[in-house]
C-alpha cells in the first residue's frame, strides 16, 4: 500500500495491518462479516476445471478464518474476440458448481473485455468473533498441522509444458478443487486460534506471516511435510513457477534451512492454489484436531511446532519430535 494508513474502524476486527487471509467486520457481539477476493489466469487446460479451482481458491480464505461463506460476486475478464463465449460458459459452470457445493449464493458480478482471461470471486461470509481463526494467535509449544500435501505449483507449471503425468495432474486437480470447509469446522470445534491457508506465498511464506504476527518462531521438520507423489521429479526436470522463485528470494534471511536438500527446500517455497489449512494448535488439543480432520476425510499432517521467538529467523528447518 506504499505507506497508505491502514483503515481504522471500531468494529474492524481484522484489516490490512495483519496480512491475514480476509477482512473481518463485526456486526453484533456474536456475528461478523468475513470478506475476501481472489482471481487469476488459467492454470489448467480444461475450462470447467479452471472455474472449479478458481471458486474453491476464493472460498478458502473464508474457511481459513473459521468462517462460513454466504454470498459471491463473480469476476470475469475475457478476450471476447479471441475466445468463444461458450468456453467462458464452461468456466462459469465450473465456478457455480463449487459455489453450490459450498452453499454460497452468487448475487452478481462484473465482466470486462481483456486480452488475457481471468476468473474469480469476491466472497462474503460470516464468523463468530469469539471463534474466528487469525494468523496472530499462535503460541510457543503449539503443534503445526497441515491438511493438504504440497506441489500444485510445480505440477501446473509442468502441465503448461505438456510434462505433467496424467495421474499426478489428477491428484493435483482433486486437491485444488477440494473445499477446506470440513477442515475449518474441525479447527473451530477444537479451539484452534491461529491458522492460515497455504496459497501463493507457499508453505514457508504463509508460515512466516503467522510466526511474525504471533511473535514466535516456527520449527518445521521437512521430512514430515507431505508432497504430492511425482512432484520432486517434475521440479528436478526444471518445472518451477516464477511465483515460487519469488517466494524463495523474498524469504532469504528469514529461514534457517539447516541441512535441507535443495529439492525439498524449493517445494516448501512452492506457490500453491487452494492449498490446505495450516493450523497452530495447543498440544492438549492436537490429538482431537487430527482425529476430527481424519474423520472428515481431510489430511492431518503434524509438520512442526512453534517455539519462543529466536531472532533473526521466523522459521527453522530441522527434525522435530512431536507427540
| Rg computed from alpha carbons, rounded to a whole number of angstroms | 19 Å
* Helix-strand sequence: EEEHEHEEEHHHEHEHHEHEHEE
Structural class: alpha+beta
CATH architecture title of the largest domain: Alpha-Beta Complex
How would the global form be characterised? globular
Give the amount of beta strand, in percent: 15-25%
**Ranges with pLDDT <50 over ≥5 residues?**
none
How many separate domains? 2
Adjacency order of strands in the biggest sheet: 8-11-7-12-9-13-10
Oligomer: single chain
End-to-end span in angstroms? 42 Å
Specify the biggest β-sheet. Answer: 7 strands, mixed
How helix-rich are the residues, as a percent range? Answer: 25-40%
Q: Got a strand count?
A: 13
CATH topology of the largest domain: Phosphoribosyl-aminoimidazole Synthetase, Chain A, domain 2
Give an account of the 3D structure:
By secondary structure, the chain is α+β, with helices and mostly antiparallel strands. The protein has two domains: 12-127, 60s Ribosomal Protein L30, Chain: A, CATH 3.30.1330.10; 143-317, Phosphoribosyl-aminoimidazole Synthetase, Chain A, domain 2. 36% of the residues lie in helices and 25% in strands. The protein contains ten helices and 13 strands. It has helices spanning 47-64, 85-102, 152-160, 166-177, 181-189, 202-214, 231-236, 242-250, 262-269, 283-295, and strands spanning 12-14, 23-28, 31-40, 68-78, 105-113, 118-127, 143-146, 194-197, 216-220, 255-256, 277-281, 301-308, 315-317. The strands form two sheets. A seven-stranded mixed β-sheet has the order 8-11-7-12-9-13-10, sandwiched between helices. β4 (68-78), α2 (85-102) and β5 form a beta-alpha-beta unit. α1 packs parallel to α2 (85-102) and α3 (152-160) crosses α4 (166-177). The longest helix is centred in the N-terminal third of the chain and has 18 residues, at 47-64. The chain starts with 11 loop residues before the first strand and ends in a 6-residue tail after the last strand. The model has no long low-confidence stretch (mean pLDDT 95).
Amino acid at each position: 500500500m506504499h505507506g497508505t494508513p491502514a483503515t481504522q474502524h471500531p468494529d474492524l476486527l481484522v484489516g490490512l495491518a495483519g496480512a491475514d487471509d480476509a477482512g473481518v467486520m463485526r456486526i453484533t457481539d456474536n456475528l461478523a462479516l468475513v470478506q475476501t477476493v481472489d482471481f487469476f489466469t488459467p492454470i489448467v487446460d480444461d475450462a470447467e476445471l479452471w472455474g472449479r479451482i478458481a471458486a474453491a481458491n476464493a472460498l478458502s480464505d473464508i474457511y481459513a478464518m473459521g468462517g462460513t461463506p454466504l454470498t459471491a460476486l463473480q469476476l470475469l475478464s475475457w478476450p471476447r474476440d479471441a475466445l468463444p463465449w461458450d468456453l467462458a460458459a464452461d468456466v462459469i459452470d465450473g465456478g457455480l458448481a463449487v459455489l453450490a457445493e459450498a452453499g454460497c449464493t452468487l448475487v452478481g458480478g462484473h465482466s470486462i473485455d481483456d486480452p488475457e482471461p481471468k476468473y474469480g470471486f469476491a466472497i462474503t461470509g460470516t464468523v463468530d468473533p469469539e471463534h474466528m481463526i487469525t494468523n496472530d494467535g499462535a503460541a510457543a509449544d503449539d503443534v503445526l498441522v497441515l491438511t493438504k500435501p504440497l506441489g500444485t505449483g510445480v505440477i501446473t507449471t509442468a502441465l503448461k509444458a505438456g510434462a505433467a503425468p496424467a495421474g499426478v495432474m489428477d491428484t493435483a486437480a482433486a486437491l485444488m478443487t477440494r473445499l477446506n470447509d470440513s477442515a475449518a469446522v474441525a479447527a473451530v470445534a477444537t479451539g484452534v486460534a491461529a491458522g492460515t491457508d497455504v496459497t501463493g506465498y507457499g508453505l514457508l511464506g504463509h508460515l512466516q506471516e503467522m510466526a511474525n504476527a504471533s511473535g514466535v518462531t516456527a520449527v518445521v521438520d521437512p521430512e514430515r511435510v507431505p508432497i504430492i507423489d511425482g512432484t520432486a521429479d517434475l521440479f528436478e526436470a526444471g518445472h518451477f513457477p516464477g511465483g515460487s522463485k519469488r517466494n524463495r528470494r523474498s524469504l532469504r534471511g528469514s529461514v534457517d534451512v539447516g541441512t535441507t536438500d535443495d529439492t525439498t527446500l524449493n517445494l516448501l517455497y512452492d506457490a500453491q492454489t487452494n492449498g490446505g489449512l495450516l493450523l497452530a494448535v495447543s498440544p492438549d488439543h492436537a490429538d482431537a484436531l487430527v482425529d476430527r480432520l481424519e474423520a472428515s476425510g481431510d489430511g492431518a499432517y503434524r509438520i512442526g511446532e512453534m517455539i519462543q521467538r529466536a531472532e533473526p529467523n521466523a522459521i527453522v528447518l530441522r527434525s522435530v519430535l512431536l507427540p
